[in-house]
Amino acid sequence: MHILHLEFETDSTRDMDLRLLEYHSYFLRKYKLPVLSLIVYPFPTTVVKSPLEEKSGNEVLLTFKFGTLCLWQLSAERYMRERIFCMYSLLPAMGGAGARLLLRAIDEMAECYRGNDLRLSGELLRFTVLLRRAERMPLEEKRQVLERLSMWDNLIEQDPKIQQMRAESRNEGIQEGIQEGIQEGIVAMQGAVLDTLKKRFPHLAETATADIEHITSLDALRPLIAEIAVARDETMARRAIDAHLPH
Question: What CA–CA distance (Å, rounded) separates 237 from 243?
Answer without folding.
Answer: 10
